[in-house]
Structures are given as structure tokens and as C-alpha cells.
């Protein structure tokens, strides 16, 4: 989407929404709080801080990071959903926005109706990796063939029940024709990765951020397929799941900037316009890619809402088919 089209979309949203008349011409005139549902120092937190540093000068006010970790970021997301819809409290959300709500009726928010999206700013596809010593297969086709020939023999890690790694595993099992894999949920990504490296489990579907360093020639892991339509620019040798014959195996986490539902459309439009300016800068895109995140520059409030809604429906179906539950 080019700049002119983007602005027309934003303008259209502003005109259609009656909330636009409530927007103040001087927005913003005080600091904006960007709530992150994870502790300082993690991938999402670092991205949020880099984003805040770049939008702050364009907005003319400080954008302050407010870390509210806990309960798969639901504490952060619920607090933003309940905040005054004036543009001064935003969420820097991830896929946990959707997954937690699917499994928790008391999440405190609805992923679609509780928010006015600003933009999807990043996406991080998952990658399918195996322990080379325990599962010495060279490609995804061979992996699926081996698992089908030995039902129940192999195990797969996740970062916990209901996490994106767990959902990605269940999607993989479905798309591959109903694989019989033993699910081993760990208490977090570091523990699951260590379990794979040690050979406690055979397979793990996780982001490249943690897997890539251990997949070099002498490393214990082999990365078989990138769960995306296009190869990763930072790991171009890894084929996509589409190339590997499993086109429906598309799984990723995302980064989204959200305002509370009811935020005036003029405020949403201004935040979206500035976000578009920041995300369109080549230097910033390169910086984000260096963190193994795919930057998204062409998102807007309409497409972001559609993106979240479609992801919600996709993972809702997986929840039902795989009978994912916290009980």
C-alpha cells in the first residue's frame, strides 16, 4: 500500500466514525503510555522501546514504556482495554492477546471488540526444528514420514499449554494428516529449548530467535521449515513450509499497537499515520530484522483489525479440533 492509499484509508476511517468529533486538535499534549505485557529485556519489550523512541519525536511527547508482565500478557491487555479511550494508553500486544482469551473466559477483554487497532508492526513466524541425533531427518517430508511410521514414539516440546508454540504444534499435527506426537509442555521457552538440545524431546516449533544459534553445522539442532509463505531474510537457507509441501502450516506471533475500543478515529488515524512513517523507514526495518522479526510497514487500522479477527478464528478452530484446554 502506497502512502496516498494509506492516508485515504485512514481518512475514511475518521469520516465514518462518529467518535472522531471527540478528538482534540492538540492530541497529543501529554505523555503516552505504551503497555508491554512482558518483563524488560525480552524481544517484545525491546521492539516496543525502539518503536517508542521513533514515534515520540513525531508525536512531540514522550512515549513511556509500562511493563505489566503476568498471565500471558493478559494483565497488560486487560488494563489497556479498561483504560480511558483517548489515545494516551496503548498496548504493544503479541499473539498471546488471542490465545489467552481463547482459553480463559475471564481474560478481561475480547481480542477484537475491546480494542481499536493502530497497526500490526511485526510478525515472527515459527520454525520447525529437531534434535539431529534423535531425529536424523534432512527435510520436512522425511520428518512427517518418520513420525507416521512410528506413532507415539516421538515427542514435541512446547513453552506451555496454550502458548503459540503449543498451538503451532497442534496445527502441524493437523496439517500433516494427523500426527501422533507426545506433547511435552515446559515452563517457558528457555526450558523447552534446553530440553530439545539435551534430547529430552525430539521436536520443537519455536521462533528463530532462540533456535537459530543452535542450528549451525556443529550445533545439535536442524531447522527443517520456516512456517511462512516466504523465506526469512536472516536465514534464507531454510525452506518455507509451503515449499516443503505443507502450505497450510503457517504459524507466527505478531506485534500490534492497540488503543482501547472507542478511541476517537482522528486519534487512531494520527497514531496510525505516524506508525506508518516510522515502519516505512528502511533503516528501522533493518534494525527490526536484525532482531529476527519481520517488520510490517503497510498495516493500517482496518487491515490490523481484520488480521486480528482472522487469527482469532484460525486459532479458535485449532482450539476446538485439538481440544486445547487449561483444565
From TrEMBL:
Annotated family: Belongs to the UPF0065 (bug) family.
InterPro entries named among the record's database cross-references: BUG, Bug_dom1
Alphabetized PANTHER family for the sequence: BLR1237 PROTEIN, TRICARBOXYLATE-BINDING PROTEIN
One Pfam family linked to the record: TctC
Designated name of the protein: Tripartite tricarboxylate transporter substrate binding protein
Provenance organism: Xanthobacter aminoxidans
Amino acid at each position: 500500500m502506497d502512502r496516498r492509499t494509506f492516508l485515504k484509508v485512514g481518512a475514511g476511517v475518521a469520516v465514518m466514525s462518529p467518535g472522531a468529533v471527540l478528538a482534540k486538535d492538540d492530541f497529543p499534549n501529554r505523555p503516552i503510555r505504551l503497555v508491554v505485557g512482558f518483563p524488560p529485556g525480552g524481544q517484545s519489550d525491546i521492539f516496543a522501546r525502539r518503536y517508542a523512541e521513533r514515534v515520540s519525536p513525531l508525536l512531540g511527547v514522550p512515549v513511556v514504556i509500562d511493563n505489566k508482565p503476568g498471565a500471558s500478557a493478559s494483565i497488560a491487555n486487560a488494563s489497556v482495554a479498561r483504560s480511558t479511550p483517548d489515545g494516551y494508553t496503548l498496548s504493544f500486544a503479541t499473539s498471546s492477546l488471542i490465545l489467552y482469551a481463547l482459553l480463559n473466559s475471564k481474560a478481561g477483554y475480547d481480542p477484537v471488540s475491546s480494542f481499536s487497532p493502530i497497526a500490526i508492526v511485526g510478525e515472527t513466524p515459527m520454525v520447525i526444528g529437531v534434535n539431529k541425533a534423535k531425529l536424523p531427518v534432512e527435510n520436512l517430508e522425511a520428518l512427517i514420514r518418520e513420525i507416521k511410521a512410528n506413532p507415539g514414539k516421538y515427542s514435541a516440546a512446547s513453552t506451555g499449554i496454550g502458548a503459540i508454540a503449543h498451538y503451532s504444534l497442534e496445527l502441524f499435527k493437523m496439517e500433516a494428516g494427523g500426527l501422533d506426537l507426545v506433547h511435552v509442555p515446559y515452563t517457558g521457552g528457555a526450558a523447552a529449548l534446553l530440553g530439545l538440545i539435551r534430547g529430552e524431546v525430539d521436536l520443537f516449533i519455536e521462533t528463530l530467535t532462540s533456535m537459530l544459534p543452535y542450528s549451525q553445522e556443529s550445533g545439535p539442532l536442524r531447522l527443517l521449515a520456516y512456517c511462512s509463505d516466504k523465506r526469512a531474510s536472516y536465514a534464507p537457507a531454510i525452506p518455507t513450509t509451503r515449499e516443503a509441501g505443507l502450505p497450510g502450516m503457517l504459524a507466527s506471533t505478531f506485534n500490534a499497537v492497540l488503543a482501547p475500543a472507542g478511541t476517537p478515529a482522528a486519534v487512531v488515524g494520527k497514531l496510525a499515520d505516524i506508525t506508518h512513517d516510522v515502519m516505512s523507514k528502511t533503516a528501522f526495518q533493518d534494525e527490526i530484522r536484525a532482531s529476527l522479526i519481520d517488520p510490517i510497514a503497510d498495516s493500517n487500522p482496518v487491515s490490523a483489525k481484520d488480521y486480528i479477527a482472522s487469527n482469532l478464528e484460525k486459532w479458535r478452530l485449532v482450539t476446538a479440533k485439538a481440544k486445547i484446554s487449561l483444565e
